[in-house]
Specification:
With 364 residues, the protein is an alpha/beta fold. The protein has two domains: 185 residues, Alpha-Beta Complex (Quinone Oxidoreductase, Chain A, domain 1); 143 residues, NAD(P)-binding Rossmann-like Domain (Rossmann fold, 3-Layer(aba) Sandwich). It has twelve helices and 15 strands. Strands 3, 4, 5, 6, 7, 14 and 15 form a seven-stranded mixed sheet that branches. Helix 5 crosses helix 6 and helix 5 packs across helix 11. The protein is globular and about 60 Å long. It binds zinc ion (ZN) (2 copies).
């Protein structure tokens, strides 16, 4: 094991530097992991490009899986893990003591919250190692860990985040039931994870939509993961296609598209009377094109926002990944080292990279 951690620091928009840090002292309450892999998502390239501002130089990376190489006794007890265990690290921290943490809503912890998440904490906060683009990650007393079974490849395990999102957005938030018709807008990794989650919860029919030639391969993947129907909305009308196959509209519609102005309107059109629309893909400053507000009223649609994932969904994601029921190994995957991250993030931020699952292996 090296004496020092090697990590990428995001200094400002589009500017990463590679630096070394001393490994932190670990006390009774905290731990240190050696990082196996850190998954990348849309948030990574938004942070990289500056669309999502940072509060000073920061080690990014919030979908981290690693092995515990140092841990205090109290930390073992609190996290229910041991030395050498492989763990995924929850993005949010929880003080386990405030009113929100006590009610289970730890993501709104009054002592942590949105600006104190792994991958977003500036390096000026000791001991600096708060992000997954690094050989080592510091596990604070308020961190939350999910144990990874030895039988699961740690690189695949980084899918705990997107698959957890699919479970929360396509099943937990809308309360998807056996027999439901589910439509998922957006065939990226979170859309495909939504298919897995919906099918796994007994949904009878799942449609996935994409837009144009770029999504063609992704829609094919969606079929391999159980989608009953895939639709290219550039050339097909999703409402017509869904009705021709099922004779009805969707009980649940999940919009995971980023910055697509047409998706919300489509989601409302695809939703049945009394159905639920979950909006999980952020649109920035963009509006909602062709949105029929009256349809929301006439059909009494429930519109629910979903922000991120929670630890229950992560645990279910690890169970599904470990079950080998779905072909996650076959996903188009790009695994890079720290030195290639600048390039990959530039490609991702301008949509020039098509791999569905990108990850950084800091020891590659
Ligand atoms: Zn992410
Ligand atoms: Zn709290």
């Amino acid at each position: 094991m090296s004496e020092k951690a090697k990590a990428l620091i995001l200094q400002g928009p589009n500017h990463l530097t590679l630096e070394e840090f001393p490994l932190p002292e670990i006390s009774d309450d905290d731990a240190l992991i050696q990082v196996y892999a850190c998954g990348l998502c849309g948030t990574d390239h938004e942070q990289f490009s500056g669309a999502l501002p940072i509060g000073g130089p920061t080690i990014p990376g919030h979908e981290t899986v690693g092995r515990i190489i140092k841990i205090g006794d109290a930390a073992k007890e609190r996290f229910k893990v041991d030395l050498n265990d492989i763990v995924a690290v929850e993005v949010f921290q929880s003080c386990r003591n405030c009113i929100n943490c006590n009610s289970g809503d730890y993501r709104h912890c009054v002592n942590h919250g949105l600006f104190d998440m792994y991958g977003f904490i500036p390096i000026n906060k000791p001991p600096s190692l708060w992000g997954g683009y690094s050989t080592h990650l510091y596990i604070s007393k308020d961190a939350m860990l999910i144990k990874i079974p030895d039988s699961l490849d740690p690189r695949l395990a980084t899918l705990f985040n997107p698959l957890g999102a699919g479970i929360r957005w396509a099943v937990e938030v809308p309360n998807t039931k056996a027999g439901d018709v589910v439509s998922i807008l957006g065939p990226g990794i979170r859309g495909i994870s939504g298919v897995v989650a919906a099918k796994n919860s007994g949904a009878e029919f799942v449609m996935v939509t994409g837009f144009g030639p770029r999504d063609k391969g992704r829609l094919e993947f969606a079929k391999q993961f159980g989608a009953d129907l895939v639709v290219d909305t550039q050339i097909q009308d999703p409402v017509k296609e869904l009705k021709s196959k099922t004779g009805r509209l969707s009980d649940v519609v999940v919009d995971v598209t980023a910055k697509s102005t047409a998706a919300f309107g489509q989601a409302v059109n695809l939703c049945s009377e009394g159905g639920t629309v979950v909006i999980a893909g952020t649109k920035g400053a963009y509006g909602a094109e062709n949105l029929s507000i009256d349809s929301i009223i006439y059909k009494e649609i429930k519109i629910l926002g979903a922000l991120g994932v929670d630890i229950n969904s992560y645990s279910k994601a690890i169970e599904i990944l470990n079950s080998n029921q779905f072909p996650f190994k076959e996903l188009s995957r790009l695994e890079i080292g720290l030195d290639e991250a600048q390039n990959l993030l530039s490609e991702l931020s301008c949509g020039r990279q098509d791999a569905l699952h990108c990850l950084i292996n800091p020891f590659k």
